[in-house]
Known about the structure:
- Helix content of chain A is 35%, strand content 24%.
- Chain A contains eight helices and ten strands.
- The N and C termini of chain A lie far apart (51 Å).
- Chain B has two domains: 2-46, no CATH class; 58-271, MetI-like fold.
- Chain B is 83% helix and 0% strand.
- Chain B contains twelve helices and no strands.
- Chain B has helices spanning 6-23, 25-46, 58-70, 73-105, 107-122, 129-136, 140-164, 168-176, 181-218, 224-233, 237-265, 267-271.
- In chain B, helix 10 runs antiparallel to helix 11 (237-265).
- Chain B starts with 5 loop residues before the first helix and ends with a helix.
Amino acid sequence: xxxxxxxxxxxxxxxxxxxxxxxxxxxxxxxxxxxxxxxxxxxxxxxxxxxxxxxxxxxxxxxxxxxxxxxxxxxxxxxxxxxxxxxxxxxxxxxxxxxxxxxxxxxxxxxxxxxxxxxxxxxxxxxxxxxxxxxxxxxxxxxxxxxxxxxxxxxxxxxxxxxxxxxxxxxxxxxxxxxxxxxxxxxxxxxxxxxxxxxxxxxxxxxxxxxxxxxxxxxxxxxxxxxxxxxxxxxxxxxxxxxxxxxxxxxxxxxxxxxxxxxxxxx
Amino acid sequence: xxxxxxxxxxxxxxxxxxxxxxxxxxxxxxxxxxxxxxxxxxxxxxxxxxxxxxxxxxxxxxxxxxxxxxxxxxxxxxxxxxxxxxxxxxxxxxxxxxxxxxxxxxxxxxxxxxxxxxxxxxxxxxxxxxxxxxxxxxxxxxxxxxxxxxxxxxxxxxxxxxxxxxxxxxxxxxxxxxxxxxxxxxxxxxxxxxxxxxxxxxxxxxxxxxxxxxxxxxxxxxxxxxxxxxxxxxxxxxxxxxxxxxxxxxxxxxxxxxxxxxxxxxxxxxxx
Lengths: 267, 272
Ligand SMILES: Nc1ncnc2c1ncn2[C@@H]1O[C@H](COP(=O)(O)OP(=O)(O)OP(=O)(O)O)[C@@H](O)[C@H]1O
Ligand SMILES: [Mg+2]
């Protein structure tokens, strides 16, 4: 199995600069290293502005980087590709399209026929529990339902790698817990590799095999914490002392970065 | 519903009647017809037919209208004028929308052409009409040009704003699924900009109608403008009024047609 030798996502010594309006070059990411093994669920957590979104966009192929290399499923990234799909924080649904057409949008961009893409999209709407809403418009759905459509749209293109940028942060706390479990259900039935960005420590611990902690100015990886909680994870997991302990450990590492940030703020 | 008290039901019925009048097509028609009837009665009473030169009553104006229709002069005039309007509006949309999109997407285009359209909005177009006339003479092209000058900036500016306002995350989403520039434009940017473009088109139509009348009256055309000039020369006050009112009514019909289209196309933007 040579294929298993290469990780699903490999980010090596990647640096990224942004040129601000006054012409100054600021380093947004500094020699970031990160690997997501095949079938692995990895979360990134870190203070605001540490470059999480920047990194996800680069892996997604919609943003260039300046130094280092990024490869997905063993192939160097040079733009978006059919083996990757993204779920967005703001859902990014097209309000003039029905739920079905939204779920089928990725397939449409890949040139699939209407019949084929609708069949697949219907399937995935079923998976995320929205089969009855195929003909509704996004504006008629709750936030949680809208993000289910976003998830269906990403899954519809049968990706190997799922990129998620704070997908549940705009969703109420209760729905969020339910969506976490649903996401794990879907993930466990596939061989998907997931890179998941979040600000919620319990979410990162509950979902992940590993939690990557990033610091800011410039963005860099400070810690990687292995989450050795057994799977499948259920509501019981949230009460597991080990879960509490791991969440506390993530907070310990993060808190250090937050105070760093505060101390560094005036400069 | 069934458990409601009778009094509340009566109240609900009142609300429902109001809703029926404002929210349904036939309801709105009834409202407008009533208002129109009141205006017509007032007009009839204000008019005086004893001397031909005095302000005509509604019936005299209508008679003049029938005569002008029967001898074919009004339909012919409207046809000629309508051609200029149609050509002008087609140019406004056909050039205005693409130009607005280019302005929104390319800063270079924005910097080079936007000032002209800001100028067109700021300046009274009537002041430029003599320039057009000097350049193009008393021609069809001159009248079309005046109409375009009146309306185009509204489409250009509103299209540009609409395209700029398209949420960047929608474009990023499409790009992440491998959409190329053209697909992003046709599948995301343009549909998202439709409500703004339609608003521009509606405003532009109103302006184009004004431009049409201005062109007819200043650059004497073969259409309703020359008809009005001729009737005025022979002191046919009722006939002049009939022509003017016909133009206004047709304009109103066109505007509500565009408004209806706008509402239909914008349904999704109103729900969210
Ligand atoms: N297009 C851009 N031009 C200039 N600077 C940018 C650009 N995009 C991001 N940045 C900067 O890069 C840094 C990282 O931004 P990024 O959005 O990746 O952070 P983040 O970790 O996702 O933050 P958050 O948790 O708030 O989402 C920030 O300091 C931001 O200001
Ligand atoms: Mg972010």
